[in-house]
Amino acid sequence: MNDSSGSPPPATVVPRAVLVPFILVTSLFALWGFANDITNPMVAAFKNILLISHFESSLVQAAFYGGYCVMAFPAALFIQRCGYQKGLAAGLLLYALGCFLFIPSGWLMDFHAFLAAYFIMTCGLSFLETSANPYIMALGPEETATRRLNFAQAFNPLGSITGMLVASHVVLANLNPATEDERGALRSSDPAAFDAIRAADLDVIVGPYAVLGLVVFALFVVFLVKRLPEGRGGADHDLHVGRTLGRLARTPHYLWGVVAQAFYVGAQIMVWTFIIQYAGNELGMDKKTAQQHNIAAMAIFVSSRFICTWLMRFVAPGLLLALLACGGLLLTLGTILMTGMPGLWCLIGVSACMSLMFPTIYGIALQGLGGDTKLGAAGLIFAIGGGCLMPPMQGAIMDLPAFDFGAFTLSSTRVSFALPALCFVVIALYGAWMAKRRVTA
Length: 441
Prior knowledge:
Blueprint: H1 19-39, H2 42-50, H3 54-57, H4 59-82, H5 84-100, H6 102-108, H7 111-138, H8 145-153, H9 156-171, H10 180-189, H11 191-225, H12 241-249, H13 252-273, H14 275-283, H15 287-311, H16 317-337, H17 340-354, H18 357-366, H19 373-382, H20 386-398, E1 403-404, E2 409-410, H21 412-415, H22 418-440
Antiparallel strand pairs: 1-2
């Protein structure tokens, strides 16, 4: 039946013709979610196993997100020249290689070897995200691109929850229960026994990454042989790097989107990485119990992602982004100022506010870029470097003594969450600006 009003039908979010490629690529969102969130608890695990500081253990995140940062633009140039499919295949191959490198790292019992494995693994993830995010946007009409990306990103937390469960029940639950103090005393009194415990614990960490490598390599074979459509705007393989960068530099909503994305990723990684430390330092929880609260935060994140994707049908993306950032700021202040379980509940609740942020910033920053989207996407993946810089800064604050403000004293753990609070201020300003820009455009 024809529409008597003469208005065109609403644009389809996922056209039927690209449903299979959409499902196949969307599965990768869960795959890198798994990598992200099996890794976050490893910061606390390596600290305990290797007897290193908060700052040193947070170098896991510096190496992990450093791979994103370093490889973003080379990946974009490769994708521009060779296309999305080859970019996805290259990412899966590097991802699998990084996972397999955990095996010799465990044999060497060397922290720096593990850092190198994380770095190579996330060079692959940088290829995947630089390819998959704009490719999902290209698989359908431009007017539904942000909604389509939010829908695909909604499956990312499912992989994250799986990674958290593996970290909790396969890794943390099977580590030797000796505390850092007990391990330190054993290292002095019986170095051979200490080395045996350390080797056994590192074997526990290596196992899941080795299995993950096999899964990723199998997917690499699939993407190597399966033919995928180019997607909207995907046929131009000429580089035009200088002209493209010039146009991007003259696009304010894109440039500020890169800044906002860096602060968002920094906030996300700080909140999720240091839930365990907050629960342990402030409430005396053991790591496995603390990780259950991290899983609860991710469950809230997943639920909120689907709810917020639905809300975007009625609320402009920029406005919704600003409102959620304000909510994240208030909850983070609650984490700093409230003691005991209320402070931990606030920290868990921040995840509800973060759920929409990455894909929404990504979508509105790339809006209208046309043929510049592939290189523009690299800037937004480069912005993941916020997760490389900020967790070590927060870890360094945690290593300090308590802060005396005269009328009251705050632990260094609580004060350290001022960093994610600052991040939410930046995100709120970007969202409000984009909301205003949409109204006045």
